Each structure stands twice: as C-alpha cells, then as structure tokens.
C-alpha cells in the first residue's frame, strides 16, 4: 500500500505533463471581435457600412454585446479565485485593470484632441473644433484639462472605457456578493439599475451639465448578468435550453428587428403613456433601458441555446476574428484612434461616401494587421518562457474552456 501510495502521485504527475492542453474555445473571442468591429464602424458615422451594423436591426448595439461578453470573460478569468486569503490580490488585480483602462482612455482622448485640432489647423476647418465636445474644453482649458483627467468631461466617442473602468472598480464588491449569495448579487444589481434609471442617478459631468454618456450604475447589470451566469456554470450549473424560452427570445428579437427597420418609434410614445419609468419603456442608452437590455440578453440566449448558431462562432485559434478578439483592449484603442482620424477625414471631404467606405475598409484591415502583430509578439514571448522552463517542470493548469463550452 505504501508502495502504491508513493508511485501513483508520480504516475499522475507524468500523465498531467503528457496530457495536451485543452483547445481554446474561441467563440467569446469571435463575438468580442465582431463587437469591436461594429463599434469602430459606428464611430465613423456617415459612411455606407454604418447601415449594416447591428444597431440598424435591433434595440442594442456593439456596446451592449461588448459589456456582456466582458462580464462572461471576467467570470472565466477571476471566477472562483476570489477566496479567503486571495481576496486582497483579486481586489488589487481589479484596481490595476481599472487603472490600465483609465490610461488607455487618456491615450485615446488626447490623440483625439490632437487629430481634431491639427485637422482644423491644417485643413482650415474651424468647424472641427465644434465636434465631439472639444469646444467646451478649448473655451476653458483651465477647468477643461482637470475635467478630462478626472473624467468629468469626456470627448465624444471616447466614453466606453470610463464606464468599463468603473465596472472593474465595482468588481471586488460584485465578487464578494456573488461569493456570499449569487441571488443576492442579482437582486442588488437589479435594484441599483432600477433606482439609478428612475431617479437619474449617474456620475455627473463637470465642464458641461449632464451625465456620463454610459452610466456605470446602469450598465453594471449587464456586466453582472454575464459574470453571475459564468459563475453559475462554473459551479456545475447549466443554462437550460427550453423551447418556450427560445421561442420568446426569438419573438423578441424579431419584434425588435421589425420595430427598428420599420421605424416604429411612435409606439414608444404609446408605451410612455402607461406611466411606467422610462428605464422600463424607453430606449435610452445612458441608463440602459429595459428594451435594450432584453434585446442583447435574448440574442445571447439564442446563441447559448441553439447549437448550430453557436457552432457558427467556433473558429480556429489562427482565425483572423479569433486573433482580433483576443487582443481586445489594444484593438479597441487602435480602432478608436482610427475612427477619430476617419471622422476628421470625412469632415474635410464633406462626408464623401466613397472616401468613407474606402477608409473603413482600410481601417478594418489595419486593425487585423495590428492584431496579427500583437499575436506574433505574444507567441514569441510564450515561446521564450517555455524555453526557459524544463519540460518536466511544466504543469498543465486547469482550464476554463469546459466552462465556456457549457456556457456557449
């Protein structure tokens, strides 16, 4: 017995080393890539490709998809690591990520300012200074610069990362509530979303009167749903593919499609007469009104529940969309800068449809090339790390791909 006890761990260790790593489930990467591309296209308004993004066929757009996917990804990355003894490390990791997002936001903000101010000077187009909330900053730089640095003033089309960073600052509390009771987390999250939407509670802007364009107190619900759903699956649960739920989700997606494509927005005025809060009946993006929330959740549920639909998103690790989505933050920053340059170009060319279409194609190609560059660097770094470690010492870490498999 002692002999077996001594031998079996060694045998298990050899088997663990010999066992190949589980192939990465790429569907989250592909979905993230599609969301990034739609955000880029929508951030270059006035060109033909804008007409074929998801916002033209339903209530939600790439931003909602990106936040939901982010919640799922955070659940996979952090997951059950928020344990006694490791909680401080997880808190510091979340705060560090929030600071990274803040830094990325500052980069895109100041590059945007340089692009628009330079464009106004080089092309003698002073009207560029009136675009994307720049004029208020130029009129009062003494207050404007501090407002930019404290997120009290946000340049147009540069307002996703502040909300996303705020979500990471909320993440320690989200993980704590989920560890205590997942149902409690969802109840608190829904309550915060509802109260902030009814009473218009949101971070205020300081240079101009108003709110952040994307209120983190509202958008946290979508993030929490993605996170909580992932944690539910990690603990052995499943998201049931019930025919009635599939039918309801399909009907809602179809209703949203007809509503948007036939421009039935007058029906929204009828909903307003019901006396319910606008966060329930409206289509506001700042406070993530219920119709927008339900639309992205319905789409996600259909992807989860219909195998053939889910299978369409499965790509190889070397697929362009997989690589693009794997480097999401870097691609988002690059896409934002390219979009801002595109806005300047379209302004000085009087929104030429030909110039706009060509630029979007070039911008998308540039993002794929940049993603391949980042992937090449990642593989080189991984290769150097493996070369430094003796093969016998390599341990195959537990993967979360089975979690993604059951979730998607």
Description:
The chain is mainly alpha-helical and 408 residues long. It has helices spanning 2-18, 27-42, 62-77, 87-122, 135-139, 141-149, 160-180, 182-199, 216-234, 243-261, 266-272, 278-281, 290-305, 307-311, 320-326, 328-348, 353-388, 401-407. 68% of the residues lie in helices and 0% in strands. Helix 9 (216-234) crosses helix 18 (401-407) and helix 10 (243-261) packs across helix 13. The chain is globular, with a radius of gyration of 23 Å. It contains 18 helices and no strands. The chain has one domain. Mean pLDDT is 90; it is low at 1-22 and 396-402.
Helices and strands in order:
Layout: H1 2-18, H2 27-42, H3 62-77, H4 87-122, H5 135-139, H6 141-149, H7 160-180, H8 182-199, H9 216-234, H10 243-261, H11 266-272, H12 278-281, H13 290-305, H14 307-311, H15 320-326, H16 328-348, H17 353-388, H18 401-407
Structure, briefly:
The chain contains 18 helices and no strands. By secondary structure, the chain is mostly helical.
The description of the largest β-sheet is: none
Overall pLDDT confidence: 90
| Secondary-structure-derived class | mainly alpha
Could you state the order of secondary-structure elements as H and E? HHHHHHHHHHHHHHHHHH
User: Which percent range describes the beta-strand content?
Assistant: under 5%
Radius of gyration: 23 Å
Total individual domains: 1
Question: Top keywords for this entry?
Answer:
single chain; 408 residues; mainly alpha; 18 helices; 68% helix; globular
């Amino acid at each position: 017995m002692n002999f077996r006890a001594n031998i079996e761990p060694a045998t298990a260790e050899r088997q663990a080393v010999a066992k190949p790593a589980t192939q990465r489930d790429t569907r989250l990467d592909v979905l993230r890539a599609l969301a990034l591309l739609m955000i880029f296209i929508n951030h270059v308004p006035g060109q033909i490709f804008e007409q074929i993004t998801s916002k033209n066929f339903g209530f939600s757009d790439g931003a909602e998809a990106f936040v939901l996917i982010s919640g799922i990804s955070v659940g996979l990355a952090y997951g059950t690591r928020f344990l006694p003894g490791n909680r401080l490390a997880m808190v510091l990791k979340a705060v560090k990520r929030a600071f990274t997002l803040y830094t990325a936001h500052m980069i895109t903000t100041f590059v945007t300012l340089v692009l628009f101010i330079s464009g106004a000077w080089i092309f003698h187009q002073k009207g560029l200074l009136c675009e994307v909330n720049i004029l208020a900053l130029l009129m009062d730089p003494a207050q404007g610069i501090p407002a930019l640095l404290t997120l009290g003033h946000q340049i147009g089309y540069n307002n996703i990362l502040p909300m996303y960073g705020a979500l990471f600052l909320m993440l320690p509390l989200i993980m704590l509530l989920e560890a205590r009771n997942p149902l409690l987390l969802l109840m608190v999250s829904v309550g915060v979303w509802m109260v902030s939407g009814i009473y218009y509670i949101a971070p205020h802007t300081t240079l101009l009167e108003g709110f952040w364009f994307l209120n983190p107190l509202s958008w946290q619900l979508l993030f929490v749903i993605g996170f909580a759903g992932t944690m539910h699956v990690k603990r052995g649960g499943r998201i049931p593919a019930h025919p009635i739920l599939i039918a309801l989700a399909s009907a809602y997606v179809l209703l949203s499609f007809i509503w948007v494509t036939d421009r039935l927005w007058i029906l929204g005025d009828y909903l307003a007469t019901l006396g319910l809060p606008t966060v329930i009946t409206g289509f506001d993006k700042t406070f993530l009104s219920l119709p927008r929330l339900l639309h992205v959740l319905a789409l996600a549920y259909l992807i989860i529940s219909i195998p053939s639909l889910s299978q369409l998103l499965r790509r190889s690790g070397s697929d362009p969309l997989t690589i693009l989505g794997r480097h999401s933050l870097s691609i988002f920053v690059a896409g934002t800068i390219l979009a801002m340059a595109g806005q300047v170009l379209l302004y000085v060319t009087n929104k030429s449809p030909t110039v706009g279409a060509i630029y979007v194609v070039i911008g998308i190609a540039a993002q794929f090339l940049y993603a391949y560059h980042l992937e090449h660097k990642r593989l080189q770094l991984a290769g150097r790390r493996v070369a430094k470690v003796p093969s016998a010492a390599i341990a195959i870490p537990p993967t979360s791909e089975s979690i993604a498999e059951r979730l998607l």
